[in-house]
Here is the input.
Amino acid sequence: MLAELRGASKRFGSGAAAVDAVRDVDLTVRSGELLAVLGPNGAGKTTSISMLTGLSRPTGGTASLFGRDPRDLRARQRIGVMLQASGVPDTLRVRELLAEFRAYYPDPLSMADIVEAAGLDGLESRLFGDLSGGQQRRVLFGIALAGNPELVFFDEPTTGLDVEIRRSLWSTLRTLTGSGRGVVLTTHYLEEADALADRIVVMDRGRIIAQGTPSQVKSLVPGRRIRAESSVSVATAERFPGVQRVTRDHMGIELLVGTAEPAVRALLAADPSVSNLTIVEPSLDEAFLALTTDTPESEAAA
Amino acid sequence: MTALTDARVRPEPGRGPSLVRIYRTEAFHEFLKLIRVPMFAVSTLVFPLMFYVIFGITFADERAGGVGVTTYMLATYGAFGVIGAALFGFGASIATERGQGWMRLKRVSPMPPLAYFVGKVVMATAVSGLIVLALFGLGATMGGVEMPAIQWIALALVLVAGALPFSAMGLAFGYLVGPNSAPAVLNLVYLPMAFAAGLWIPISQLPDVVQAAAPFLPPYHFSQLALGTFGASEGGSALLHLAALAGFTAAFLAVAAWGFRRDEGKTYG
Here is the structure.
C-alpha cells in the first residue's frame, strides 16, 4: 500500500457556511496500479488528492503516504505530483526549473532522463514563459518525475488537451505503471478511466459511490443494449419482455433491457429478417450517469 | 521512453538531499528571476542611485545632521534602496507567486518549507548589498564622502540588515491585500512612507507635523540607526530604534502568519 485515506473528511469554513468537500472517504493506492478517481466537477477529487499529498489536512479521519503523515518530507520525497493549474515563474529556464526540483530529492532522476521522459529535448534553455501551453505541461510533467517517484499523482492531466496530445499522455502514463510506479489520476473523462485504469473510484458530492475494475464498475449498471436492423416498430418493441426503452435511428433499432435473452427471442419471433444483431454492455458513460444520478438528494444534503 | 526504468517500491533512503544545495539553488534562482524582469531591476537598483545623485550631489555643499549632505544621504538613500528591495523583491514576489499557484507546487514537493523564504531573504539581502555597494561607490567618488573605514563598514552592515524587517513588512502586505494588488499598494505605501520618514530629504527640513509622525513609521527607525553609525542621528537611543523595528517586524510576521493559515483552507475541488 502506497497511500491511504481512512474515513477522511474535509470541511471548508464553519457553521452554516460550511462545505463538506469530502465525506468519510476510504481510499487505498496500491503499488504498480493505475488508480483513476472519476467524478464530475466538485465531486471531491482534487480535495482527496490534496489530502493524500499533504497539501491539506483532513478535518476528520486520517491520510497516510508510505506509512507516514503526507506532510512528512520523507514521504513526499517518494512521490511526484502534477497539479491542475500551476503558475510557474516565466523568467526561469526549463533546465533551472528542473534543477530546482531535483535538488529536493535524495535520489533524483538524471537531468537527461527527465528531459527524455518528458519530451523536453531542445527546450532546456528556453524560458518557461516562452513555451507553448503543451510544452509548459510537459515541463510540469518533468517536474513531477524529477525525484524518480514511486507514486505519481496527476490532477486532471488531460483537461483541455486536444485528442492527439491526450493519447500521447495516456501512453506515457502506461509507461509509468509499466515501470512499476503507482499512478493516481483524477479525471472527469470516463473514456480515460476506462482506457487506463486498473481500478476506478467513482466520487460524487464528496463521497465514493462505487469502486472496482472498469468492468466491475460497468457491471454495477444492470442491463444490456440490443441493437439490430429490423422493421419492427417502436410500439411493438416496447411490448417485448423486460424492455425499458426503445429508440430508433437510421442505423436500426435499439432496445435497453434488463436481461437480453427474452427480448431477443421476442424480436426474432416478430421479425424473422432481423440482421446485424448485437448485444453490448452499457458504456462507462452510462454506468457513471446511472451511478451519479441515483444518489438520493436527501443523502447528499445530510 | 527508455528513461523510466525500474521504479518499483524501494526502501526509504537513509539520507536526505543536500540542504546546502537546496538553499543555494533557491537563492540563486530568486536572483535570476529578479534580474530577468528589467522593470523591477531598474526600479529597485537605479532609483536609489539616481535620487542620491539628484538630491545629494546637487546639494553637496549643504550640511544635515552635522555632516555633509552627501554623507547624510548615503544613509537615507541606502535605507530607501534596501527597503525597496525587501518590499518588492521579497514581499510582492511572494504575494504574486502565491496567486499564481507556484507556491502550491512548491508546497506539494518535498521542499523544506523554510527554503522558499530563506531563498528570498538571501536574495533581498544580496540585492541590498549591491545597492549599498553601488551607492558607496558614488558617494566616495562623486560625493567626496570621507569616513573612517569602521564607519563605512558599520553603515553597510546596518543597511543590509535592514532587509529583514522590511521583508516582513512586504510579506504582511502580500497577505493583507492579495496577490494582484500587492505591488501597487506597496508602492502607495513605500513612497510616501519613505518621504515622511526623512529618506528623501533630511527629516529636520520636513514640516513639524510630519516630523512628529515619523516615529510611527518603520523606515524612520531604520534610517536613524543608519545615520547613527556616523553620529548624524536625531538622537534617541539606538536600542530604542532597534526595539521599535523588532516590534514592527513581529507585528508584520503575525499578519503574514494569519494570512498563511487563512490561505490553507481555501482550495475546493
Q: What stands out?
A: Residues 1 and 16 of chain B are 28 Å apart (CA to CA).
